[in-house]
Design brief:
- The protein is mostly helical.
- It has one domain (2-142).
- It contains six helices and no strands.
- The chain is elongated and about 60 Å long.
Amino acid sequence: MDFLTDLAYDLVAGLAYGALGLVLLALGYGAIDLLTPGRLSDVIYRDRNWNAAAVVASGLIAIATINVTAIVTSHDDLDKGLAYAGTFGVLGIILLSISFVVVDKFTPGDLGELVCAPEKHPAVVVTVANHIAVGAIVAAAIS
């Protein structure tokens, strides 16, 4: 009977972590969408813009990295793990947004415009690296 109880608990935990992760990924996508001109869904899917896709992808990777670290370090404590994943996930989204604004201040022109420009731009590489770095830093803070 312990096996079935453990399996049921793990399935509920997986569902809870998965649902929280999806919500945080959606919030992160929304934050990046607010920081860039136009709707990202149009810019990425209709216009096939590689710049915007790379920036969004790196933001999602950063948020996922934070969540994975929070889950792994929760040591089978579901309540604590969900609280850590949610809290640090939101912190990561806030820090990603702030870092985007900071990079924008150091970038000639408007970073949001560069990210959504049809031609590839090197500033996007910096933004991608910045997102991954922020995700790694927040993930390290959890452990």
